[in-house]
Prior knowledge:
By secondary structure, this protein is α/β, with parallel strands linked by helices.
Amino acid sequence: MRVRVGIVGCGVVGTGVVELLLKNSELIRERSGVDLELTRVADKDWQRPRSFYVPSDIRTTDYKEVLENSDIVVELVGGKGFAKQLIKEALEKGKHVVSANKHLLAEEGRELFELAQKKGLSIGFEASVGGGIPIIKAVKESLVGNRIRAIYGILNGTTNYILTRMLEEEVDFQSALSEAQEKGYAEADPSLDIDGWDTAHKIAILSYIAFGGFFDFSEVYVEGIRGVELLDIELGRELGYTLKLLAIAKRRDSELEVRVHPTFLPQEDPLAKVSDVYNAIMVEGDFVGKTMFYGKGAGSHPTASAVVSDIVDIARKIAFCKEAMPYSWGDRTLSISKNFYSRYYLRFDVPDKPGVLASIARVLADSNISIASVLQKEKVCSIAGREKEHIIPLVILTHKAYELDMKKALEGIKELPVVVGEPVLIRVEEEAE
Ligand SMILES: NC(=O)c1ccc[n+]([C@@H]2O[C@H](COP(=O)([O-])OP(=O)(O)OC[C@H]3O[C@@H](n4cnc5c(N)ncnc54)[C@H](OP(=O)(O)O)[C@@H]3O)[C@@H](O)[C@H]2O)c1
């Protein structure tokens, strides 16, 4: 059976999808039994060179032509304004939708998914998380019998590349970012990636399906890697840890934690070994235990592979079930706890003299935080004006503690006259305890 597909937005991903659909249409037909016909591809500008030739008879600059000539509308424009309007219009016209737009789906997806459900239509969004890694389908379908306990991982290739360079080449953040930009791994304006928002969008989408409900995206704790210092990466290495920008969503008793921040992982943790632009996601279910998904999290071809898997899925349902059963979204609103429970790496710049550790330890103890280990370096910190005072980094690793207790303790420690500048806090994830 023939199913008509139209694309709006023919940039990096859109061009990849056109290429895949035109090159592998025969293979897709043999495997799935559906004949996908690419009817229209809309973009604002057809003068710009593309990595693959888009036949002129299917090109258009008018997205409405796509809506008129498709059973499945593929939104690959990005952003929230026009993309949202397009998806709503497509659903109102009775069209199924496929989108890779994590920004829109994480922040305003609820409204769109509810509209799709009301209309009995599907929105496919495999490509919105993990590029070519089939993580959405795995959580939605393959692990459907599991209560998901936790889902966490490295969801942004740009930041993972920067942290890998800092660790391996011992360069500072700015140099690693410049290298990523030269290689085309980071945008000219890299803030969505390095400030953690791209990762946060992806973990929000994963949480919606893993925990069966929605939450207000602005509740997610997001801290990027802009402030990461090489000194902490090196001190962490001495302690047996590797620093990653980790997205974490986990149940703790009746609470749900959803957060993104630089995180120390034990060097032997499989996620600590994921380097360069690769992504990896760990899912823990109550029956399956731990499963890990690894691959390229972005790029024209891997992302096109995910988009096409959604197209084929929906097309098969249209062809063989006569209607595509929409994914059943719960109408629950989930609430997120801000009082995380974690181990902490703390670095204080302090003078090398007796009593300093004791004064800090006292404040931590007063906030119910117990120390697991201490590392004190004889290296002098290069803090302007304080060189003569012999300022050294003092690192404390704590046992698991509550975030609110830790914040209170840090306020107290900052007041101590021996502590110079801002303390550094990095959360540590490990199995121990
Ligand atoms: N790139 C990746 O590796 C990747 C991976 C996973 C998910 N995604 C997601 O996939 C989506 C597309 O990303 P991309 O990298 O392909 O972006 P892109 O290269 O910027 O492509 C978007 C295309 O849509 C066009 N466009 C904008 N407004 C339009 C309109 N009103 N009508 C028709 N076309 C319009 C743009 O034209 P102009 O450039 O002229 O504005 C551009 O050609 C985004 O949601 C992104 O987050 C991308």
